Amino acid sequence: MTDLSTIVKAYDVRGVFPEQLDEPLVELFGAAFTETTGAGRIVVGHDMRPSSPALAAAFARGAVARGADAVLIGLCSTDQLYFASGHLGLPGAMFTASHNPARYNGIKMCRAGAAPVGQDTGLAEIRARVERWRAEGPPAPVAGPGTVTETDLLDAYAAHLRSLVDLGAVRPLKVVVDAGNGMAGHTVPSVFEGLPVDVVPLYFELDGTFPNHEANPLDPKNITDLQAEVRKAGADAGLAFDGDADRCFVVDEKGDPVPPSAITALVAARELARTGGGTVIHNLITSWSVPEVVRENGGTPVRTRVGHSFIKEEMARTGAIFGGEHSAHYYFRDFWNADTGMLAALHVLAALGGQDGSLSQLVAVYDRYAASGEINSTVADQAGRLTAVRAAYAGREGVTIDELDGLTVTGDGWWFNLRASNTEPLLRLNVEAGDTETMARVRDEALALVRG
């Protein structure tokens, strides 16, 4: 039997199918989700992985056995499932392993209104119920099982996104979109229908075996085809989505990657202009440019730990209009505080098409610092190395240290954050500075301390 500690992560369930995650186990998760949320009705969607339809059906069976009605929306992106949860006012479950290899699958769960389900918001309770039922047998059947219905919300999802960004008056644009054989191949044609955007499609065929490249655009090797096609087609921009199409990565007209922090700053400026001000959430390893741009545009930046549950909690607490992460997750108040890379992409295209300059010129104002990107180091003693790094910088003149999430060390014109991975023996380093030379110096000193 699968040790649930190996597949129940901080924010979701994820494991190898069928060795770790199979239909009988998923059926128990469906029952436990229903009991934990007290739901009388749930919504379930799935991605294009070969195992996803059967697992989604098993989850629905578990919910129905506990008396809940299950609404199946079929193939969808993760942000489309969040839309369904918000639009219908129902708890939901999405079957996907995002950018993980084909042999994996998983469950992302939310309460009604796309409110997150993580370890502290129901996932630990769900796991405990599943463990108890595996040991003692499933609970007694309820008197009246629920029903299963099917509905298609793709058009409603697309219409909602288009209602939030006005692209009607923008100049015509040519945009290459790399769906990575993931769910963007299903959603992009509907979302972009009728817009003044000439879409050049790459890998729109739904194929959960990912025959062309991994559907993880944050890995540079997975956007090389997009970069080449943007240059070949003379496109204005390129968009790359991950497997479940909730993250979007942008390249400019030269094929150069646009840092997600620059996208966060750009979208923040637009949302602040549209709403007349407000709070914008950013995690602590986004660029300094993000809080700077937020303040320049009359907003209030709020810094959080890394992770979507922290972003969503702060958005709900503060009433924030927008939030962004370094990992290309973008969260919108008008999207139930949930993340949608598709909406961020529409904002980028609206900003680009609303002026005459190129995308590289447009984002230059938001991309102000030299960054290392995330550098991983394998270490046996994470806590010990973090303590050693802290000791090396403690007491230095002009240096401050905080431990909101890992270790953040800030000096004159530079900062770095060092965090332990929750799932692997890794320390993750991010460095930023006002110039490349300073960034490289700080990076190399920090890495020498980390790696001993």
From TrEMBL:
| Source superkingdom | Bacteria
Has UniProt tagged this entry with the keyword Ion transport? no
Residues in Alpha-D-phosphohexomutase alpha/beta/alpha domain copies: 7-133, 155-255, 263-369
What Pfam families does the database record attribute to this sequence? PGM_PMM_I (PF02878), PGM_PMM_II (PF02879), PGM_PMM_III (PF02880), PGM_PMM_IV (PF00408)
* Record-linked InterPro entries: A-D-PHexomutase_a/b/a-I, A-D-PHexomutase_a/b/a-I/II/III, A-D-PHexomutase_a/b/a-II, A-D-PHexomutase_a/b/a-III, A-D-PHexomutase_C, A-D-PHexomutase_C_sf, Alpha-D-phosphohexomutase_SF
Cofactors (names): Mg(2+)
Q: Which residues form the Alpha-D-phosphohexomutase C-terminal domain?
A: 374-447
Q: Which Gene3D superfamilies match?
A: Alpha-D-Glucose-1,6-Bisphosphate, subunit A, domain 3 (3.40.120.10), Alpha-D-phosphohexomutase, C-terminal domain (3.30.310.50)
UniProt signal peptide: none
Keyword terms of this UniProt record:
Isomerase, Magnesium, Metal-binding, Phosphoprotein
List the residue ranges forming a coiled coil, or say none.
none
Q: Which PANTHER family match?
A: PHOSPHOMANNOMUTASE
The UniProt entry's sequence similarity note says:
Belongs to the phosphohexose mutase family.
Entry protein name:
Phosphomannomutase/phosphoglucomutase
